[in-house]
Every structure is written in C-alpha cells, then in structure tokens.
Design brief:
single chain; alpha/beta; Rossmann fold; Arc Repressor Mutant, subunit A; 7-stranded parallel beta sheet; 6-stranded parallel beta sheet; about 10% strand
Length: about 700
C-alpha cells in the first residue's frame, strides 16, 4: 500500500515525499478508521483525503462550507487528471442534474458538497452512492466553542450515523482543546485518532505595530506595498467603511487594488474575488468575510489594519499568505479603540465571557515583549524550544529596566481618581495636561498631577498596557473601560513588590529590523526566465479560465527558473509537476527554458567556472559568496558540481565525516532522490543545505 500511495503522490501531484503526518493519516483512513486532523492553513490537509479517494473503489464525499474554495479545489484536482466535481447553491439546476448523473454512474472520485446541500439530499440520491470516505472540512464550524459556529453543521451527526462502516475524517486549522472535544462529540466520530501537525509556519514573518495614527498607518502601508511591487496581498479591516477608504487611498496612488465586504452584492463580491485569484487584481482590502474560500498560493503578505478579535481568526488570516512555502510577511496594526469596540460587540452577543477572554489573549499577543511565534504556538498547544528569530520582538529584543517607581506613579493616579477613569485620563493627569475634563473634575489638585510629564503619551500608554499584562491593573469594559488596581497592584503601590518594565521601541529601532530570509529553492533563479514563465502561466490560465496557481505555483516556477529542466524527466523532477501537468503544459514551458538556455551560453562564463576561478585564487567559500553576491549554499552547490566533474576541489575541508555519514543514511532512506529539502527535513533541519549538497557529491563521486 505504501508503494501505491507514494506512486500517486509523485505521478498525480508531483511531490517526492509526504509532509509530516500525512502518510500516517492516509494509512489509517485506508484501514477504515476515523481521524481528527488538526493542521495549519496551507499545511496539506486536502492530501489526507484526496489520496485515499484515489485508492478507494467508490466515491469520497467532502463537506465544506466554502463555496468558492470548492470550485478552486475541484479545478486543481481536474488539472491533475482527477475526476471531481462540486454540488452547492452556486450551480444551476441543469448543472445539478449533470453532477448527480455522473455521481450515480460512478464517474466521480470526489464530490464536494456544502453542509446545507448534503442534508437536503442525504435521503435521496446520495443514499444510492458507493460512499467509501467522508471528509468534513472546516470542522470547527460544528462547535459552539469554535470561532465560526454554523448551526447546519450540527446535523452532520445524523449523516455519520447513517454510514456506520464508512471512515469519517474531520479537518480544521483552528480548534483549541475545548473545541476539539466538542467537535468529536458533535460529529459522532468513533475511536478517532487526533493528529496535530506543527502550527509553526516558519516562512511567515510576524510584525506588530501599536498606537499608530491613521495618517501614519496609511503612509506606512503605502511604503510597504511600494517595496513589494506586483506582489499579491490582503489587507484586513474591522469595518466596511475602512475597506473602502483604504482601497480608495491606494487606488489614487495607482495601485492594483479592490475592496471586499459583506455589504456588496454577491455578483460584485464574486468578481472581485475571481480577479484577485487570477492575479488581475494584486491587493484586496477586506473585512474578515474575505478569504475563507481562498486557496491562492502566492499571497506574499497579509496586513491587519485593525486588531483581530481572537488568535484563531488571526492565525487563519495570516495563514492565507505563503501557502507555496516561500517567504511571506505579516503585519498587524492595533490600538485600544479596536479593543474597546470588540468588547462592546461582545457584550451584545452569545458567549460573552468566552469572546472577551479570547479578545484579551489577542491583546496580550499584540502587546507582547517576547517571541510572538512562541505565544501564538503555545495557544494551540505547541511549544518552541527557542525563540523564532523571524518576528519583530526577536529581531529587536526590548530592553528591560527597574520600573517600580514609574508603576507606582500610575497606580497612585488610578487610586486618587477613585478607580473610575480610563487610560487616556490617567495619562493626561500624569503628564499634567491642561484640558477641560481635568478642570471639570478638579484632577489638577491631585498629588499625581504632572508627576510623569517627562514621559511621552505613547510611552505611558505602552507602560500602562504592560502593567495590565502583568496583572497589576484590570480594564473594566463594563464601566466605560475604567482602570482598577488588582491585589498584586496594591502590593506594588505599597512597596511590597518590585516590577520590571521594558523600554518601548523607538521608530528608529523599528527601521533597523532585518528580515530573516528562508531557503526556498536550490540554485540561482534566472529572474528574466521566472518573469517569462509567469507570463506563459497567466495566458494559459486565461485560456482555461482557472487561477494561475492551479497551473503551477510560484515555487514550481522558481525551481524551473533555477534548475532549467529541458527534458521530460528533468521537468517531472520539479516539485509540483505530476504526469498530467507534464503532458498538458510541459512542452510549452520547456520551449521557453530551452530558448533561455541557448541565449545564456555565449553571453557569459558558466557560473560554476566563475566560482572555480575564484577558488583557485585561494578564496574561501564564504569569501567567494561575498564577492559574487551569492549565498553560501549556492557556492557549495557549485563546488560540489565541480568536484563531480573531476575538478580539483577539496570538499573534505568543508564537511566532517560524521556529517557525510548522516547525509548518506538519509539520502539512501529517501530513495537517493536528488532533492535537498526532504533530506534537510529528515535530518531535523540540523544540517545545512550546503553541507547536504557537499555530502551527496562526496558519496556519488567515491562510489
């Protein structure tokens, strides 16, 4: 069975190896057992039920609330030569009859249905199908504890009970512990096994900026976008009005942008979404109504214009970037007004206490002074041993100082105002502001009036939030956001406990931040060729009326632009290229690659020879990399190639025998495939790509 699943993975989907947990989930499903799959957005959930669907002699039912995503997934499956279709409210009665007919004749391997449609047909033609597997996507929708509860999902348990011998698979990207138990019970899963994949999306950088004025925020976003011209991105806003304002502002500056919110008519929303998916529009400014049905792989950034209302939603939204595994950036703006508004919304809704607790966790994340990825992953029950190095806090660690006296000044101000005022009034009193409210309430007579005038308004706000995060004060939203001193806070005020605070980052500190560049592809990318390949992909996608990334994603194109495949075998070796795509598109892409290869030959000395000439001059690999403006991994790749070609290169100087041995074991266990990433992952990311390349060269040459 293992051989069959691996053959399907390579021949149909174009991948050499499974991602973590996928194979175990697939094997369990083939054995007829229930599973609960918790994987991050872009983590490869779909493969867990798509491969069993190809093995089973029958049909796999996929339940999903995301109508637009169904269409995308079915198009992607068809592009790989798989028989799939969808059945939801977006199709005509004629199309419904066609789908039903194909399903009844056994001409479909996968059928996607919305929960409403499934319930409405579960006692009619659906009963006649040879159902071998049911996958329930976005399974958190069944739970009252989830962040996106949908009542129609609760009826799926009846459907599950009608198919007692059929394996069910529940899949979601967001579910905390309380939601997980509820999901299993609500869906009636039997002896299911919980699979939790790592939620660590290393390719996403995380940055948070607080208390930025509207004018400055817009200018920062413009600067951010202009440094990333022609890249796709999503900007999330709290209100419909904000989406239109931000989109209009960017449009006036001639950016390719559109807005999206629930107040638009369905046809307009569909048009905007389609144009974004097809790369006709580069940037979408949207409320959180947008994105649930987006499977676009080349979103390079996600910006939150306002504070999200919970960490589940935030994680899911940033997860819509970098789905192709290449580096992507996320930027979150927030201010206390966002927090107060969400608190007011929560007061009028269901599960008020739970919503407010989740909102508090979101604010604590935004105000954090420690590794943000650690906080985010710990929320989902995963713990990083080390700081991530790819968030704003890691890149600019805050400086701590003895903050007891500063804290006592603030606590004294709160106490002297009777614990009835909010943050703004407190800061104005501490800074000695001369405004009407202070005069009306006689606060200028307080002993604390003006004792903090040497600290800026925004720094005071930062310190007060730190005090709240440390549990010294509480923000009473039910009392107009009045500040109350906690028991610990009273101890500090009385001098019984000391407090450490951290210095707020200056704007200059923020400018110094350096992004961590992730290794995404081996070799140098020919940017002109990459641009040309994107053009071909775009024209094919227009002809076939499918999103461009369904033809090939950016990662596959970048591998083509670095590895320059010109034969069928070479092209099939590119990650993401299966047999069907090879037959459909291979020749067209290889024709362009061949043309570029022939153009390049007379133009310059081969890149490996340039490296070899510098090596003969006595330069070290690091010096060669610096001189040529290339990565050390690329230089090691050149030296390895030169060594295999018989050039005098002493590779032994750059790698130990122990490392060569480890590389050799992993290389053999993975079928001696010349792909570095699977070996890198198998070695727990402890041996660099450069060393792996050196190790393979030594192994092959000395056999």
């Amino acid at each position: 069975m293992k051989k069959q699943t691996h053959t399907l993975l390579k021949n149909i989907f174009g991948y050499e190896t499974f991602r973590p947990l996928q194979e175990e989930i697939i094997d369990r499903t083939i054995e007829g057992k229930d599973s609960f799959v918790l994987m991050p957005t872009g983590g490869g959930k779909s493969m867990c039920f798509q491969i069993p669907a190809l093995i089973f002699d029958g049909i796999t039912i996929v339940v999903s609330p995301l109508i637009s995503l169904m269409k995308d997934q079915v198009q992607a499956l068809k592009a790989n030569g798989i028989k799939a279709d969808f059945f939801n409210s977006s199709i005509t009665p004629e199309k419904e009859n066609t789908v039903i007919d194909k399903a009844l004749k056994g001409e479909l391997q996968l059928l996607y249905l919305s929960p409403e449609k499934l319930i409405s047909v579960s006692n009619t033609w659906l009963k006649e199908l040879n159902i071998k597997l049911v996958a329930i996507d976005e399974a958190h929708c069944v739970s009252m504890w989830g962040h996106d509860f949908r009542p129609e999902y609760t009826q799926l348990k009846t459907f599950r009970n009608s198919l007692p011998s059929v394996p069910f698979m529940a899949l979601t990207a967001t579910a905390d512990k309380s939601a997980r138990k509820d999901i299993e019970a609500q869906l009636g899963l039997k002896n299911s096994k919980l699979f939790i994949s790592s939620f660590d999306r290393k390719n996403l950088s995380i940055e948070v900026r607080g208390q930025v004025t509207k004018k400055k925020k817009l200018q920062e976003i413009v600067n951010f976008i202009e440094r990333r011209k022609n890249e796709s991105g999503i900007i999330y806003c709290l209100s419909r009005k904000n989406t239109e304002e931000v989109a209009d502002y960017l449009k006036d500056l001639r950016h390719s942008v559109a807005f999206y919110h629930a107040g638009m008519n369905p046809e307009e929303r569909e048009r905007v979404q389609t144009e974004f998916i097809n790369d006709d529009t580069k940037i979408i400014v949207a409320t959180i109504a947008f994105g649930m049905g987006i499977d676009k792989s080349n979103v390079r950034f996600v910006i939150h214009y306002n504070l999200p209302k919970n960490l589940e939603g935030y994680y899911q939204e940033i997860g819509r970037s970098g789905r192709d595994g290449l580096a992507a950036e996320t930027l979150l703006y927030y201010n206390m007004r966002d927090f107060v508004l969400y608190s007011q919304f929560a007061d009028g809704g269901a599960n008020t206490a739970m919503q407010k607790e989740k909102l508090n966790r979101m604010l604590q994340f935004a105000e954090a002074k420690s590794c943000r990825r650690k906080i985010l992953l710990s929320y989902f029950g995963e713990h990083l041993a080390q700081d991530c190095g790819n968030c704003d806090v890691c890149e600019n660690p805050p400086k701590g100082f003895e903050g007891t006296i500063l804290t006592q000044k603030a606590l004294s101000g709160i106490a002297r105002m009777g614990e009835k005022e909010g943050i703004t009034m407190l800061i104005n009193v501490l800074r000695g502001s001369n405004n009407a409210d202070i005069h009306a309430k006689q606060f200028f007579n307080l002993k604390t009036y003006g004792i903090g005038k040497d600290v800026s308004f925004y720094d005071w706000r930062d310190y007060v939030i730190q005090m709240a995060n440390q549990g010294l004060i509480e923000i009473m939203y039910s009392e107009s956001s009045a500040l109350k001193i906690s028991p610990i806070g009273w101890k500090v005020l009385k001098g019984e406990k000391n407090i450490q605070l951290t210095t707020p980052l200056s704007s200059e500190d923020k400018k110094k931040k350096q992004k961590v560049v992730k290794v995404v592809a081996e070799g140098e990318i020919n940017t002109d060729l990459f641009t040309e390949l994107k053009k071909i992909r775009y024209f094919i996608s227009r002809e076939e009326n499918v999103p461009a990334y369904i033809i090939f994603n950016d990662k596959s194109l970048k591998l083509m632009a670095s590895q320059l495949p010109v034969s069928e075998n070479e092209f099939l070796a590119i990650s993401g290229v299966g047999m069907n795509k090879m037959e459909q598109y291979g020749e067209e892409f290889m024709k362009v690659i061949r043309r570029f290869k022939s153009i390049e030959k007379p133009r310059k000395t081969p890149t490996t020879i340039e490296t070899f000439n510098l090596y003969k001059e006595g330069l070290t690999p690091a010096e060669i990399a610096k001189k040529r403006g290339l990565s050390i991994t690329t230089i090691f790749s050149h030296l390895s190639q030169l060594y295999i070609e018989g050039k005098e290169v002493e590779l032994d100087n750059y790698i130990t025998k122990e490392v060569v041995s480890k590389v050799g074991i992993a290389f053999n266990e993975l079928g001696r495939k010349m792909e570095l990433k699977p070996i890198y992952e198998k070695l727990n990311e402890k041996i660099s790509y450069g060393e792996i390349r050196l190790g393979i060269a030594l192994i092959l040459k000395n056999e």
